[in-house]
Write a structure and sequence with these properties.
mainly alpha, 3 domains
Length: 452
């Protein structure tokens, strides 16, 4: 989907509706496919088919939607604010999704299938309404601002056979992992989100409270997540994504270890302490949710100075793909560990070793994953100042169609080479990264040039 949107601008529909926004427009009626999943008394193949159809629709909307912030502005501060607004409203929607079904279930009855259908219909209507607002009140990068290389890459797609298109897709996908700053970004992204997956799989068992108490604790966590996103906006502008990321990682890791401390000290029934730790976890989770998706908006800027193309879609696609794969893997791994410990699903009283295993996974497992993301973040150097230098040099290259060594200062050169991981002369498509540049010579790394 990301590959498709990157190359859709040259088509008739892409020129009229936008290479990203066309799919958002198409998603407005298609989003009602979600409600078909919840029709009662249907067979297995019906539910499988409706679920797969909605999953395709979901991806068709999500990936282009994720590209809109880097499409709308190149300004570091504006990107940070736009990302903050996007993630903050996502946190609010999560709160709505947690409470609305319960209201309908209490009204129609939890054993009444129509309750779930009405819930899905309400969510479909809300989603269609929001997508309509997104379509009318967002914008894409004007085509006149795109480089000649980007326009050429779009044009080439129209003359490719199916086999050539599939080859191009594989080359473009693999090329994203050759961008050093994107690999660092994926490490930070997965470190935070896998830790949350482990937490989500274990937290219900760890709290071991009544449904009402557990709901209050999770509600508190959700509210603090929303507040954390708002607070992260000025932090990322002032200190940069990487230091802000390490701060929220420490908060979330401290909360995870605190759950274990409470349990082993016999204080896990003290509601005020559980509330405090859940609030701390909410602050950490809100920041972890925000920082990687805010950082993603700058990756295409680094990629442009390397390839001379705008490829927001392919990076959004890789992020979504790795996210789905890591989520499935993390949940499956936790399930296997619980099963080996003697856990029996649906049983109110578990074997003595189960609780200890759950606490170890929650406290130690999540902290280990967080530590990996923390270490990666130490090498991530993109911030307001370095990004501004990068954009200034990108504009020069876009104007001249090539790197111009005589127009760059030693300080700016150092910044650009640090972010790109390549020598200045290898930038702007003077390398073999991406399908358009596949026949060119490999780039020299910035380290090799310095040593030489």
């Amino acid at each position: 989907m990301g590959f498709l949107t990157d190359n859709f601008g040259s088509t008739r529909l892409g020129k009229r509706f936008g290479r990203r926004k066309f799919f958002i427009l198409l998603g407005i009626p298609c989003v009602f496919s979600y409600s078909f999943i919840w029709v009662g008394d249907m067979g297995y193949w019906y539910y499988l088919l409706t679920y797969l159809v909605f999953d395709v629709v979901y991806t068709m909307i999500l990936v282009p939607y994720e590209t809109l912030v880097p499409e709308m502005t190149d300004d570091f501060k504006q990107k940070t604010k736009f990302s903050g607004a996007r993630i903050a409203l996502a946190q609010l929607s999560a709160i709505l999704a947690a409470f609305l079904p319960g209201i309908l279930l209490s009204h129609f009855g939890k054993d009444n299938a129509i309750s779930f259908f009405y819930s899905s219909l309400v969510f479909s209507v809300i989603c269609a309404t929001v997508l309509t607002l997104v379509y009318f009140f967002t914008w894409e990068r004007p085509r006149e601002e795109m480089s000649a290389e980007s326009l050429q890459a779009e044009k080439e797609r129209q003359s490719l056979t199916l086999g050539q298109s599939l080859k191009r897709l594989s080359v473009e996908l693999s090329s994203t992992l050759r961008i050093r700053i994107f690999r660092q970004h994926l490490g930070m992204y997965l470190g935070g989100y896998i830790a949350q997956d482990v937490f989500n799989a274990d937290v219900v068992f760890v709290l071991m409270q009544s449904p009402t108490v557990a709901s209050n604790l999770m509600g508190t966590m959700a509210i603090l997540q929303f507040l954390a996103v708002i607070g992260m906006i000025p932090l990322c502008i002032r200190f940069g994504p990487s230091p802000s990321y390490r701060l929220v990682f420490c908060l979330f890791g401290l909360a995870e270890m605190s759950y274990g401390v409470l349990y082993y000290s016999g204080l896990h029934d003290v509601f005020s302490l559980l509330l405090l730790i859940s609030a701390l976890a909410g602050l950490g989770r809100g920041g972890i949710n925000y920082v990687p998706w805010n950082t993603y908006t700058y990756i295409a800027d680094v990629d442009e100075v390397i390839t001379a193309q705008r490829r927001e879609g392919i990076f959004a696609g890789i992020m979504t793909l790795t996210r789905k794969a890591s989520q499935a893997g993390a949940v499956m791994l936790v399930g296997v560990v619980l099963q080996l410990s003697g856990f029996v699903s649906g049983q109110s009283v578990q074997a003595p070793g189960v609780s200890h295993t759950i606490l170890m996974v929650l406290s130690v497992g999540t902290v280990c994953v967080l530590a990996l993301g923390f270490l990666v973040s130490l090498r991530f150097k993109l911030n307001l100042q370095t990004h501004q230098t990068l954009r200034e040099e990108t504009l020069k290259m876009r104007e001249d169609g090539r790197p111009v060594p005589e127009r760059i200062t030693p300080q700016a050169r150092q910044v650009v080479e640090m972010l790109s991981g390549m020598s200045y002369e290898s930038l702007w498509g003077n390398n073999n990264i991406g399908y358009l540049n596949r026949h060119k010579q490999p780039a020299h790394s910035a380290t090799q040039v310095t040593q030489h």
